[in-house]
Amino acid sequence: MAKTKRRHIATALIRHAIASDYAPYERILQSLRARGDIWIVPQGEYLVWWQRRENASLSVVVSDGVCRAHTSLSDAVIERFPGEFLETPEVPIPQADFSGEVCLTIDERTEHLDLLVELLRREGILNFRVAASDAAPTPAGSSLTLARDELESVLQAAHANLHQQRRFFEEDFAAVRQIVENTLAARGLPLLRVWYHPRVGGVVVRAVFSPRYDVDRAITNLARVRALERKYAVESTFYIRAFCPFYRDDAVRELVRQPWCPEIGLHGEFVTYARRYGGEVEAALAEKAHLEELIEHPVQGVCMHGGELTSNVSPRTVEAVEHAGFLYDTTPVRRYYFPFRRLVQGRLSQSYCLAHALSDISVPVGGGYARVFYETVLAMMDEIYQQNGVFVLTLHPEYFGFWNYLLTPRNWGALASFAWRYVGRRLQRGNGTH
Question: Are strands 78-80 and 84-85 parallel, antiparallel or unpaired?
Fold first, then answer.
């Protein structure tokens, strides 16, 4: 993996000596802004929304042939599944043989109950309760119990998927949603749920675009990056290395003092610093604490740095992210359209994983880079839009003016120092020493 990463970086460096991400990225921002229903937002801001959505309440009540929905979540959109966004929270349902509160009841004995709750919350089906098998029934006429045997069959598959791949599959959500739909339809009721995204500026958001920057080296290029984004009222997330050979603490402090500085996340190097601190968990805590000291603000997000010589992803990395208390992790994983929780020591994590969808260094080199980059990003956005998901685009600031980075005198000392250490470490590895 580390060898592949170095090859990608070497190719990208050559390519970007001639081409820059600046022009095609501006075209991308122009195109996305013109669509109107895509929310361009930093990862942290979106995950705060997602967490609020999961923990919101939803009340659905039927009376006099009308179904009324109310949620505690501000800017929420109520969807009558599938695809009808309600302008008013009232739906005529003259065919229903039901009156009272629509509350889905789940038997507390259901195996993998925590997964079921997670699946329902992701789908915005928040009007449910978990009850003991001998609990008092809901008010007369409003009993809507989800079939335990059907649920457990679906949940066993979901648990196997999550255990093997550390993620859910869309089929798991669709199967649970279908059970809910069938239960409601049997009483002539529609499925009303909280939509995945908020209403922003009066518009229902259909998908999310969230750019991130892996600030491995070119911290001096960030002003230019943000000047472009601010032109289109775009916020992003900068992932900063806590102990970086290419920039020092004073450069990070200077960055966060700028009025244009956006959200800051940690570009983690837990494997690299595990020996110094006694393990990956300890390294995660140390890096997070140091970066928070520099920026004087809590760090919510993390993604793993590929490393110049060391991969920073191991079987213990997920545990380290969880123990360090990060809200979310955008380290590349298999493509997935929404935030999800992983299994950590047999339990669902408190932190979310937000899958990275595309990186500038993975875009094919041939065919004219600017055009290919632009077209590849928009094609990916179209795919994610169809799934109503979240698109995390990973960018590297050194490619927003590669020569500008090389010709900035303050970068020379760090580059020379790193090159000396890099060659030394390569020679040590070649000799079989560490």
Answer: antiparallel
Give me the residue spans of the domains in the chain: 2-37+206-430, 57-199
Question: In a 3-state reduction of DSSP, which class is residue 148?
Answer: helix
Reading the chain (434 residues) residue by residue, the pLDDT tens digits are: 455 555 555 555 555 455 578 899 999 999 999 999 999 999 999 999 999 999 999 999 999 889 999 999 999 999 999 999 999 889 999 888 888 999 999 999 999 999 999 999 999 999 999 987 655 555 544 569 999 999 999 998 888 877 665 455 778 889 999 999 999 999 999 999 999 999 999 999 999 999 999 998 889 889 999 999 999 999 999 999 999 888 999 999 999 999 999 999 999 999 999 999 999 999 999 999 999 999 999 999 999 998 776 789 898 999 999 999 999 999 987 778 999 888 888 888 999 999 877 998 888 766 688 899 999 999 999 999 999 999 999 999 988 866 566 666 665 556 555 554 555 455 555 555 54
Q: Which of 85, 86, 205, 183 is nearest to 127 (CA)?
A: 183
Intra-chain end-to-end CA distance of the chain, in Å: 19
Specify the pairing of strand 390-395 against strand 356-359: parallel
Coil vs helix vs strand at 168: coil
Phi, psi of 182 (to 5 degrees): -65, -40
Give the C-alpha distances (Å, rounded to integers) separating 66 from 69, 70, 102, 145, 385.
10, 13, 12, 21, 32
**Structural contact between residues 380 and 358, judged by C-beta atoms closer than 8 angstroms:** yes
Q: Cα–Cα distance between 263 and 301 in angstroms, integer?
A: 9
Residue 104, strand partner residues:
128, 144
3-state secondary structure of 373: helix
Instruction: Give the C-alpha separation, 250 to 141, whole Å.
Output: 66
62 residue type, one letter: V
Measured distance CA(309)–CA(2) in Å, rounded: 7
**Architecture field, domain 2-37+206-430:** Alpha-Beta Barrel (3.20)
Paired tokens of 260:
């244009």
Distance in angstroms (rounded) separating the CA atoms of residues 22 and 11:
18
Element of type H or E holding 95: none
Tokens 């009850």 belong to 131
- Entry field: residues in the chain: 434
